Amino acid sequence: MGDKLFPEAKSSEQVPPNATSVLHNSSYPPMYMHYPSVFDLAVIKVGGSLAQNPEKLRTLCEKIGALSMSHRLVVVPGGGEFADTVRQLDDRFLLSGRASHCMAVLAMDQYGLLLNDLTANSVVVQGLRETQTALAQGKLPIFLPSQLLFAEDPLENSWEITSDSIALYLATKLEAQRLLLVTDVDGIYTQDPKRYPDAELIKKLTPHNLVELSMRTSVDQMLPKLLLKQPMDCFVINGLFPQRTIDVLAGQPAVYTLISTSL
Predict the structure, then answer these.
(1) DSSP letter string over 252-263?
(2) DSSP secondary structure string for all residues of 74-90
(3) Helix axes of 163-173 and 97-118: crossing angle, nearest 10 degrees
(4) Between the CA of residue 165 and those of 26, 28, 159, 209, what are the distances in Å?
(5) How far is the C-alpha of 125 from the C-alpha of 131, rounded, in Å?
(6) CA angle (197, 222, 207) in 5-degree steps
(7) Which are the contacts of 188, defined by CB distance < 8 A and separation ≥ 6?
(8) 167 to 20, 108, 182, 192, 249: CA distances (angstroms)
(9) Per residue in 211-228, pLDDT tens?
(10) If DSSP codes are grouped into helix, strand and coil, which group holds residue 171?
(11) Contacts for 65 with CB less than 8 Å, ≥ 6 apart
(12) How far is CA 169 from CA 11, 23, 165, in A?
């Protein structure tokens, strides 16, 4: 692939002795294990907001686990309630940017462990080499980002960086072809749909268009700026309707917002 977002970042492939053990969820019996038939790689960020609806999240995880049998997928966890706790502590103690950033990244690790427990055929990974090994074994890697991000520290330490931008960074490192941001809204709107019932869903837009919106959307403020540096098709999808994720991976029509430099 071309230039990385941060080409001077140092490698973090060596795993320290006290690193978290790899966890497996192997609910599928071995007879179903096989190499995926699709060779392009998609990174799926599963938003933490979906945990507010346990049954929907369980169904989504079930579908993603099944999809991993025929697609090369990597899951990146959101932060959800774990990250919300960090925000509350930041407000209370006025933490440094570095401290709150690291704590929020660890929140993603915790949500990743939850997703691993809900998702058949999944395995927790913490590095790029582990991820490739899991994919070669027909497994679904769930990437806990703290080890790599603490070693490389490639992103601004602020609340403008969320799991959206972190998922893009990891997708770039993995040389993925697509990034799916699976959240609890249909996509990006012309206005906040919770406040303005007449807000319209934007089907497609470029990262530059997104920067020009100059308003808070369902993705973090840094994401479009990073997409301008490292182009990648990015889909914002409502995970409360798992069929939409299935359709996007299959190239079928669905409800979503596509952010792409090729539009």
Answers:
(1) ---S-EEE-TT-
(2) EEEE--HHHHHHHHHHH
(3) 70
(4) 29, 32, 11, 17
(5) 6
(6) 70
(7) 201, 202, 205, 210, 213, 217, 218, 219, 236, 257, 259
(8) 20, 11, 11, 23, 17
(9) 998 788 999 999 999 999
(10) helix
(11) 25, 27, 28, 119, 120, 121, 122, 140
(12) 14, 23, 6
In DSSP terms, 72 is beta-bridged to 41
Amino acid type, 127: G
Give this prediction's pTM: 0.86
Counted residue by residue, the chain has a size of 263
- DSSP assigned state of 31: G
Q: Indicate the residue type of 58.
A: R
Quick one: which of 169, 190, 166, 160 has its CA closest to 257? 190
Q: Which residues are CB-neighbours of 21 under 8 A, at least 6 positions away?
A: none
Specify whether the CB–CB gap between 259 and 212 falls below 8 A: no
Helix segments in the chain, DSSP class H: 54-67, 80-93, 97-118, 128-136, 146-152, 163-173, 207-213, 223-229, 242-250
Domains defined along the chain, listed by start: 42-259 (3.40.1160.10)
Please report, for residues 5, 22, 160, 177, 182, the alpha-carbon distance to residue 164 in angstroms, rounded to integers and kept in the order given: 14, 24, 10, 16, 10
Angle (nearest 5°) at CA 241 between 159 and 236: 40
What tens digit of pLDDT does each residue of 237-253 get?
A: 999 999 999 999 999 99
Pairwise CA distance, residues 253 & 238, whole Å: 14
Lowest mean pLDDT among 18-22, 143-147, 234-238, 248-252: 18-22
